[in-house]
Amino acid sequence: MTLVYTHENLTLVVNVSTALQNAGIKTQIKNQYAAGGRGEIPCFETWPEVWVASQFQVKQAKEIVAQITLESTQPDWQCTHCTELNGAAFDFCWHCDSPKPR
Ligand SMILES: [Zn+2]
């Protein structure tokens, strides 16, 4: 088992785990319910973690994680057709289906 991603936000951790599983990578989330221990153990140790079961899939998993975290650091974009604000990870406006401007 290899740790490939950790974040204080469980939703992000679950999203990464789901993306990896969709790519055929078997994952396990640890510390999902460890937040209750905050204050007694160092806070980083209570963050939920994504672990990859097979060492042969770690490289692929890390590439997917890098792609996801890169997308999450890019700014939202505004649709030029309907002015809707869309997350950086979306290639099409969720409101009107127009493509993301390049
Ligand atoms: Zn739009």
UniProtKB/TrEMBL annotation:
Where does the secretion signal sit in this chain?
Answer: none
UniProt keyword Isomerase, yes or no: no
The record's PROSITE patterns line, in alphabetical order, gives: ZF_RANBP2_1 (PS01358), ZF_RANBP2_2 (PS50199)
* Occurrences of domain RanBP2-type (ranges): 73-102
Q: Which domain of life is it from?
A: Bacteria
Alphabetical UniProt keywords = Metal-binding, Zinc, Zinc-finger
- Pfam families given in the database record: DUF2007
Protein name (Swiss-Prot/TrEMBL): DUF2007 domain-containing protein
Q: Report the source organism.
A: Pseudoalteromonas spongiae
